[in-house]
Amino acid sequence: MQLSARNKLPGKIRRITAGPINAEVIIALPGGTEIVSVITRQSVKTLGLKKGLEVLAVIKSSDVLVGVCCGGETCKCGK
């Protein structure tokens, strides 16, 4: 598989939680970090995804947002 995306993170599927239309796929990366992806149930079926399968989390985004809370641990301002 060749992709133009530079951010390809190898991992294993830890859990798949199916909803009515979409499914939440949790991928465990080496070192314990997890990536969560929401894809269609049809994509889960087409790709043959299942717990323990080695996959790539491919991240392609034009925007990355960064936020800073204004008041420490108890801040609830939402800014």
Question: What features would you describe in this structure?
Answer:
There is one protein chain. The longest helix has 7 residues, at 41-47. The chain has 79 residues and is mainly beta. β2 (22-28) and β3 form a beta hairpin. The mean pLDDT is 87. It contains one helix and four strands, in the order βββαβ. It has one helix at 41-47; strands at residues 7-18, 22-28, 34-40, 54-59. The chain has a domain at 7-61: OB fold (Dihydrolipoamide Acetyltransferase, E2P) (Beta Barrel). It has a four-stranded antiparallel beta sheet with strand order 3-2-1-4.
Which band does the percent of strand residues land in?
A: 35-45%
How many strands, which pairing sense, and closed or not: the largest β-sheet?
4 strands, antiparallel
CATH architecture of the domain at 7-61: Beta Barrel
Question: Which geometry do the CA atoms define?
Answer: extended
Helix content class: under 10%
Taking the alpha carbons of the first and last residues, their distance comes to 40 Å
**What is the CATH topology descriptor of the domain at 7-61?**
OB fold (Dihydrolipoamide Acetyltransferase, E2P)
Could you tell me the mean pLDDT? Answer: 87
Can you tell me the residue ranges where pLDDT is under 50 for at least 5 consecutive residues? Answer: none
Number of helices: 1
Structural class: mainly beta
Quaternary state of this entry equals single chain
Q: Briefly, what CATH class of the domain at 7-61? A: Mainly Beta
The CATH homologous superfamily of the domain at 7-61 is called RNA polymerase II/Efflux pump adaptor protein, barrel-sandwich hybrid domain
Order of helices and strands: EEEHE
Q: How many β strands by DSSP?
A: 4
What order do the strands of the largest sheet run in, or round the barrel if closed? 3-2-1-4
Radius of gyration (Å): 16 Å
